[in-house]
Amino acid sequence: MTFEPSETEAFQELFQRNKEKIRGFEGCEFLELYNDKNNKNIFFTYSYWQDEEALENYRTSSLFKEVWSETKQMFAGKPEAWSVDKVWSSA
């Protein structure tokens, strides 16, 4: 997510206020916020969900709608999202 530089502090505060609620949402197994090393107004969240249904339940929840409505007002660019499967390698 690329934020207006003037909004990065507000976004971090929003995340801090809501991270435990998101982590406590049924099916959320892990959530962290990362900040790009070179572009301090670029962030991304990394989360694990029990399954696709748990993630979809979160995405349709009032909690997500509330946090997302505040978050998207701070963007400088269009956000991106990825869903991935676990990849196992044997060395």
Strand content: 15-25%
Q: What is CATH's topology name?
A: Alpha-Beta Plaits
Please compute the radius of gyration using only Cα atoms.
14 Å
Estimated structural class: alpha+beta
Continuous helix count:
3
Poorly predicted ranges: none
Q: Which whole number gives the mean pLDDT?
A: 90
Strand sequence of the main sheet, in spatial order? 1-2
Highest-level CATH class: Alpha Beta
Helix fraction bin: 25-40%
Q: What is the element layout, followed by pairings?
A:
Blueprint: H1 8-23, E1 28-35, E2 43-49, H2 52-59, H3 62-71
Antiparallel strand pairs: 1-2
Helix pairs in contact: 1-3
Protein model, in words:
The protein has 91 residues and is an alpha+beta fold. It is globular and about 35 Å long. A two-stranded antiparallel ribbon has the order 1-2. The chain is built from 3 helices and 2 strands, in the order αββαα. Helix 1 packs antiparallel against helix 3 (62-71). The chain has a single domain (5-74), classed as Alpha-Beta Plaits, CATH 3.30.70. It is 37% helix and 16% strand.
